[in-house]
Specification:
607 residues, alpha/beta, Glutamine Phosphoribosylpyrophosphate, subunit 1, domain 1, Rossmann fold, 3 domains, binds 6-O-phosphono-alpha-D-glucopyranose
Length: 607
């Protein structure tokens, strides 16, 4: 979740670094820093937002064509300037920016201190600059290679040295790094979003690779200096896509563009007449998929909630046993996996540490691995045998919105794809395909109600506790609605399956504890209505998410948001949208920075 940027070339490095850090700042950070080599090495760090760093830089005139920058999200050592990156060696010759965790840093630090190194911070990262200093004999990449052979842990790091000043040296193990070049020079970053304004052709480093980047290009090798041939990937994300597009917050922009992002996820993938889905990424493994007799879907946060919806979709329509698993738990169980078990990782970023951990565990045990990933080229997509990209465009707001609906759409496509291989009738296939094709338009109709939902958020924002309930397909949506409210507005919210209500949560209900009930006209509608009545009997205010044309619900609930009618399996895609908007306006009403909620990060790349 920290961000790295490095530049070497003809331009002045500082503006390139600051722009890169700004583009990476959506990941969540608490301090930042840059070092630029001009006549001398100038290093500036600041705690807090990037503006604080820029303010400090205002009094410096840093000129020079080589530099690195970092936004830090603290893991080891408090949020202080000393602990912010870049970290230097004893002599101010070598500077390191690092994402990840050096697990054996205590032992390394003790040894280095015994050898006379003095440390300026409490970070694990600082051992790297001193270790590299220890091995430095004039060639930076040689020293980096030797140092990394002693390191245990994870890293995406970039190093520069005054005594070898024409290059950036970058290395990766489990923490992403991407390179790009143009006529102005060479770039490295932890996130492609930081480089899109310089080039759309990117080279992703793999684990164990070391890159030397100069003004004229780059060379990649491994820790033992064996050269690697790398191919560039062309990214379709434009700079504009990564900007707010006129909305006050990225989160609102991303909620409001869901009609379009869903369309992008569906584009070219529906064959309505044949009632089929075309998923190019799965075609090479079509035969292998035929043998799969069990599917595990796993992810974290909102991606895990998408997995829960997928469980309902796939079990109902494909007829194989499906389990949704929280990746952080799965990786430390002793999961039982056979050759015919498929493991599907869902991740917007494709870099979430626990999701990767679970994926590797499943792979190791022989599972056939698949991925649903939004960030093209991310680790999950590279470590799975096959998969499907979301094509939802970059998601900047920390709380996932458009990536979630896109994940649900891809799961529905997967249901169609696998279902038709395994006995789903042509008629059912056609019905699902046709209805999926209508979803972007149905989503637009819900988004048109944004102003009304803003008024509702105004009405309720002073309540401090909320219960979200749903059943079957919309049980996970109750969890997601509650998660969104917690993340964005720091308001206590609990998501429950409505059937569980009588086993505890109903004890909380009184006139100060509103419930949001997801109650579309589906196969569990009557049961939901009984649950809502039980809440009303106890004077709990109720906001219902119901299907257009329902004439009964208005008399039972205090407020109703209507969503269009669709197939039961697709209702979660529609029902979640009012909940996203409600959480957004609620957070705004409370005056919070909804794009960067406190304590949260967009991409959680440590356990
Ligand atoms: C973080 C984000 C969530 C996201 C989760 C999983 O917690 O704040 O919005 O759902 O990570 O991220 P992934 O990139 O794996 O989907």
């Amino acid at each position: 979740m920290c961000g790295i940027i490095g530049y070497v070339g003809k331009e002045n490095a500082l503006p390139v670094l600051i722009e890169g850090l700004r583009r990476e700042s959506y990941r969540g950070y608490d301090s930042s820093g840059v070092v630029v080599f001009g006549k001398d090495a100038q290093i500036v760090k600041a705690v807090g937002k990037l503006e604080a760093l820029e303010e400090k830089l205002g009094s410096f005139r840093i000129q020079g064509g080589l530099g690195v920058g970092h936004v830090r999200w603290a893991t080891h050592g408090g949020v202080t300037e000393e602990n912010a990156h870049p970290h230097a060696d004893c002599n101010g010759n070598i500077f390191v920016v690092h994402n990840g965790i050096i697990e054996n840093y205590r032992i390394l630090r003790e040894k280095l201190e015994k050898r006379g190194h003095t440390f300026a911070s409490q970070t694990d990262t600082e051992v790297l600059s001193h270790l590299i200093e220890d091995f430095f004999e004039g060639n930076l990449e040689d020293a980096v290679r030797k140092a990394l052979q002693l390191v245990r842990g994870t890293y995406g790091l970039v190093v520069i040295a005054k005594q070898d000043p024409e290059k950036l040296v970058a290395a990766r193990l489990s923490s992403p790094l991407v390179l790009a070049t143009n006529t102005e020079g060479g770039y490295v970053a932890s996130d492609p979003a930081a480089l899109v304004s310089h080039s759309n052709k990117m080279v992703f480093l793999e684990d164990g690779e070391v890159a030397v980047i100069t003004e004229h290009g780059f060379q990649v090798s491994d820790l033992f200096n064996v050269s690697k041939v790398k191919e560039a990937v062309e990214l379709e994300w434009s700079v504009e896509e990564a900007q707010k597009g006129g909305y006050e917050h990225f989160m609102l922009k991303e909620i409001m563009e869901q009609s379009e992002s869903i369309l992008n996820s569906l584009r070219g993938r529906l064959v309505e007449k044949e009632g089929k889905a075309k998923l190019g990424g799965l075609d090479p493994v079509k035969d292998r998929l035929q043998n799969v007799d069990r599917l595990i879907i796993s992810g974290m946060g909102t991606a895990y909630i998408a997995a829960l919806v997928g469980e309902y979709m796939l079990e109902e329509h494909v007829g194989i046993p499906v389990e949704a698993e929280n990746a952080a738990e799965f990786r430390y169980r002793k999961p039982i996996i056979s050759d015919n078990t498929a493991f599907l990782a869902i991740s917007q970023s494709g870099e979430t540490a626990d999701t990767l951990g679970a994926l590797r565990e499943a792979k190791e045990k022989g599972a056939f691995t698949l991925g649903i990933v939004n960030a093209v080229g991310a680790t999950v997509s590279r470590e799975t045998a096959a998969g499907v990209y979301n094509h939802a465009g970059p998601e900047i707001g920390v709380a996932s919105t458009k990536a979630f609906t896109s994940q649900l759409v891809v799961l529905a496509l997967l249901t169609l794809y696998l279902g038709r291989q395994r006995g789903m009738s042509l008629v059912t296939g056609q019905r699902i395909a046709k209805e999926l094709g209508r979803i972007p338009e149905l989503v637009r109709r819900i988004l048109d109600q944004a102003d009304r939902i803003a008024v509702l958020a105004e009405k309720y924002w002073k309540y401090s506790n909320f219960l979200y309930i749903g059943r079957k397909y919309n049980y996970p949506i109750a969890l997601e609605g509650a998660l969104k409210l917690k993340e964005i507005s720091y308001t206590h919210a609990e998501g429950y399956g409505a059937g569980e209500m009588k086993h505890g949560p109903i004890a909380l209900i009184d006139e100060n504890f509103p419930t949001i009930a997801i109650v579309p006209s589906d196969s569990v509608y009557e049961k939901m209505i009984s649950n809502i009545q039980e809440i009303k009997t106890r004077k709990g205010p109720v906001i219902a998410i119901a299907t257009e044309g329902n004439t009964e619900i208005g008399d039972i609930a205090d407020d109703v948001i209507y969503i269009p009618k669709t197939l039961e399996m697709l209702t979660p895609i529609l029902a979640v949208i009012p909940l996203q908007l409600f959480a957004y306006f609620f957070g705004v009403a409370k005056g919070y920075d909804v794009d960067k909620p406190r304590n949260l990060a967009k991409s959680v790349t440590v356990e």
